[in-house]
Amino acid sequence: MSQTTSSTYISRPRPGETTWLWLIKIVSGPLLLVVLVLHFTVNHYLGSLSSGLMTYDDIIRYFQNPIIPAIEILFLITVVTHSLIGLRGIVLDMNPSRQVLRAVTWLLSLLGVASVIYGIWLALTIASKGA
Amino acid sequence: MDNTQNKPSARKFLTWFNPIGRQTGSWAFILNRITALGLTFYLFLHLIILGRLAQGPDAYDSFLLLTENPFIKLGELAVVAAAILHGLNGIRIVLTSFGVGVTRQKQLFYGFMAIAAVTILFFATRMYVG
Amino acid sequence: MADKWNITLRVYRQKENETPHFDDFKMEVNPDEYVLDAVERAWAFHDRSICFRHACHHSTCGACGMRVNSVEKLTCITLIRDVTRDGAVLKVEPLRNFQVVSDLAVDMTPFYRKMEAVEARAVLPVTEAEIETPASSWDADDALYIRLSDCIECGLCISACPVAATTPEYLGPAPLAAVQDQGLKRKPELLAVVDCEDGVWRCHSAFECTAVCPSFVDPGRRIMNLRTQVVGMRLRKLFGKA
């Protein structure tokens, strides 16, 4: 019978999760909820389609107010961070090997940075179309 | 078959979602995990779709017509519902994590879920009745 | 005249290298007896090879934890009346997340090791116990008196915890509660043990531990409290005030 020598783990704690990661997730959550309400109201209420959604023209007009791309970018950064830290947490619960965890961490970080860059580019492109 | 199958194992991840023999807090946990996965998937789908905005009005507005499709509409409502459920359940986790209402977490859960139900109903009415 | 119920006790059976199966034992019970009484009766009158752990029969030793109709229970204090009805099945299974040694008996070694590693207190001064006595009513001498710790190390919380099902290294509710019980201020060396991958952050607030704990430990609340202790210490360290 192979016994889990948990004392080994305890004397050398595995560093896969930290206070800071958790704090970022727990603080970005409520922040996200606030920005989401803004995002939601605007996109499902103020648009000219009968469903409340915004058409292309609505969006271009809307993005002329510089506070809007700023809010959307803030929303993007918090939502991407929160969701990817959360996703990593779920992967962590599947008890991956050190190598897999490291790979997942890198992959998700890369995905996060790429999506934020892409989102900022998109927001700025939309804003510039109305100029 | 050996006797080790009752031991913890990563392969048992599906047991997270099994509500049998579980109580209120687990239902919240299950709900949070499912909505988390759904919302993360939607987030990236959403980002990709919005890329059409860069391609000009025709590309975007023709795509927007899809939202009149009842199935897509149902999907949209599911996303709205997931965001509300995950968000309000998340507030419960934030509160209890900092010691607020920790001995009343069940009541907190039911309270937030009641608010969620009302909000989802509001959005559903808005989307389907106009 | 006491009630008599006819129940079917359905017992999980698994000896070494056997595929698990269930054996049914029909028996007459008094619904105000405990689940452990029914298991003992099956052993005494039906099948002497049923293996299960039990000792004190009054919720102090923590040996008789099992899953009763899929829910973790300390069987010596669980009334048959509360978990089944006349003519119905009473299913008993070993705790989850531990290796089965034989039938209902599981190997608790990994759990006990964790409790030892976090230096869980078996006894504590009455003045530090979470009992309904206002702090002002204690005097200095009272600190000499000790009482048993609330945690009886029955392992029900580990069995019920969804995260413990997938990660054997996760400290789990009772060991984390034992760290909270001691306090990180008093035991700063335990900070690294709980602020890591297998510590407090892995709890996802399912509160199953609290729901099944037979002994008022309320591990869920203690884990949440431990989190604020950890965050406080980390922030103080960050700002150089530790």
Task: Characterize the structure shown.
The complex is a heterotrimer of chains A (131), B (130) and C (242). Chain A is an all-alpha fold and 131 residues long. Chain A is elongated, with a radius of gyration of 20 Å. Chain A is 75% helix and 0% strand. Chain B has 130 residues and is mainly α. The mean pLDDT of chain B is 91. Helix content of chain C is 28%, strand content 18%. In chain C, a hairpin with a 2-residue loop joins strand 3 (65-68) and strand 4 (71-74). In chain C, helix 5 crosses helix 8 (219-238). Chain C is an alpha+beta fold and 242 residues long. Chain C has a five-stranded mixed beta sheet. Chain C is globular. The chains are: A mainly alpha (131), B mainly alpha (130), C alpha+beta (242). Chains in contact: A-B, A-C, B-C. The A-B interface holds A 26, 29-30, 32-33, 36, 40, 44, 49-53, 55-57, 59, 79-80, 83-84, 86-87, 90, 93-96, 115, 118-119, 122, 125-126 and B 8, 10, 13, 16, 33, 36-37, 39-40, 43-44, 47, 50-51, 53-54, 56-57, 60-61, 64, 67-68, 73, 80, 83, 87, 90-91, 93-94, 97, 123, 126-127, 130.
Compact description:
Chain A is mostly helical. Chain A is built from 5 helices and no strands. Chains A and C meet through helix 1 and helix 2 of A and helix 3 and helix 8 of C.
Beta-strand content of chain C: 15-25%
> In terms of structural class, how would the helical and strand content of chain C be classed?
alpha+beta
Sheet with most strands of chain C: 5 strands, mixed
Quickly count the helices of chain C: 8
Q: What is the CA-based Rg of chain B, rounded?
A: 19 Å
Radius of gyration of chain C: 20 Å
- Regions with little confidence, pLDDT below 50 for 5+ residues of chain C: none
- What is the oligomer described by this structure? heterotrimer
Low-confidence stretches of chain B: none
Tell me the number of strands of chain C. Answer: 9
Average of pLDDT of chain B: 91
Major sheet of chain B, described briefly? none
Helix percentage range of chain B: 55-70%
Strand percentage of chain B, roughly?
A: under 5%
Shape of chain B: extended
Q: What does the overall shape of chain C look like?
A: globular
Class by alpha and beta content of chain B: mainly alpha
List keywords for this structure.
heterotrimer, A: 131 residues, 5 helices, B: 130 residues, mainly alpha, 4 helices, 0% strand, extended
